[in-house]
Sequence to fold (382 residues):
Amino acid sequence: MYISKTREFGIFGRGDRAELGLYPGQRLENPYSGNVVDICPVGALTDRDFRFKARVWYFSSAPTVCNGCAQGCNVDLHFVPDRPHLNDGARVLRLKPRYNADVNQWWMCDEGRYGFGWIDKGRITKVHNQGVEATWDQAIGAITTELANLRQSRTGTQFGVIASSQLTNEDLFLIKEIFQVALDALVTTSVPERPGYSDDFLIKADKNPNTLGASLLGLSGSDAPDAAGIVEAALQGHIESLWVFDYDLAKSFGIDTVEHLSRRLRLLVFSGPNENAMTSWSHWVLPAAGYVEKDGTFVNCHGRIQRIGRALPPLPDSRAEWSILLDIGRQLGLALPWRNPQEIFAGLAERVIPFAGLSYDKVGSRGIALTTIVPAARMPAS
Ligand code: SF4
Fold:
């Protein structure tokens, strides 16, 4: 095929005998194979992953962006929000590419297309403290007390934050404002990641959708510590409390390190949508909304900022990170005058140069290229 460059698929026969098919001995198993279903002119080719799961007239559809790699392909999310007896209760049924001439045209890769299982499976559904169910009030109260103590004793560097580039710019901006700017904590999004498969079309080795956004905010790169340094400082006793946002430390540092951190630290918080080794060992576990359950923006690897929209409501008892962070910041008495992602983005555009002058309206449904890609810097006080 022209897009996959694999040439296993063709039209055989002529006129009313013409048939779509595979060349002898070939299988359709290239990284873009799902696109043949989208382009089949008569709907004869269907997708085994999707077939018979639900009637299409039960569907809702919402535009969003794939979080599977740094390309940020535009997609439509098809879901059934209110029929839990279908599809084993999973709300999301399929992803389809959404046309964007500047990002993915009509296409998307199979890894992104079929990689949405995490949205409905393996989710954290309740706040937990030391393995016991707790409330949001208890969690926010306990974490804020620890942060207030650090603030009073001016020992912010004893607090570490390791955040993932799966978070939106709005989440990361609040992490920066609260932890780095107000509390002088050590904050990073530089986590060890093994590069994945890539090609010269869409698929990128960086499997995070917002690595460039995090870098523009100054949370990775030469100005920021890295996760290995923060973990080491915690193991050495220089950091007493750690908050990990949506990243499984066991993946990079091993389960023994996570267990050791859990025993060594005064406070270990994990927030994220899905269960992993961190949920077993963190003192506080906070259920976070998945990215399709909140509004916000990502910056793709080409410097294009795109809105992800809010396709689905968060699961009951889970909250978007921006909302958790606003609560924490306000309880600490910080001036955070924003109420929603749109207002947080306005604050970000005022304070971080590469985003200057932007708004959700300007970003629109197809995104916009950041014209000033420079190392993140705070604007001088006016
Ligand atoms: S190329 Fe990347 S962003 Fe695009 S669909 Fe695949 S995983 Fe998602």
